């Protein structure tokens, strides 16, 4: 409803709310979008497109053009469009899905090999560089992960991609944390969080807060860890981001278990397990068990 849109906009501190849905249809996807002026409930634009499966990477450009047109903005100069190789993007999605659902070593290695091919095909696809770094990190290959995070940071700076600059910094922070260089780690996390705040990217702010909370927990700054975890959890709940909620409530469960509040810890663990089951997140299921 318009009232819900108004309340959402007020909570986010924005004047407009963008709503969208993406549904599989035939050999592609139906994309429905709506841009609403929060104060009046007026549609600035409402549209529907069919996008072929091999053209998914074009979605961002389509949305940007429609939002700019809907807001009647005057843009000085031309927008820089980053076009991804369609084959690379399809392989990127395939690798992500395979890795998230992998149940054995062979599937994990197959996902990693596919992601390596993605980067070879298209070095502008920074998400692939970050994702491959995560895969190496998960499997204990920290030197390889570090090189990928540095590569993604440099490419993001070259493309003036602030979101991926911040995410690359956050990943570097996680690596420093693993190596117990906590001062360097916190510096990276805070730098990433500052960029996300300037962008008003609340979802990514939550990720950075979670990263800082883990660091504080590891360095026995327990009260600060709880404060940051609760902030991250509450932001994720605003957007009903189930994947992030499952991670943050799992971490809250760990905190309360350490604090001997076993009843509250079990409640958080159960919430995390239920969400993981719903999402089919088999890779992280064992972390809660």
UniProtKB/TrEMBL annotation:
InterPro entries assigned: TPR-like_helical_dom_sf, TPR_rpt
UniProt cross-references to Pfam families, sorted A to Z: TPR_12
Protein name as annotated: Uncharacterized protein
Species for this entry: marine metagenome
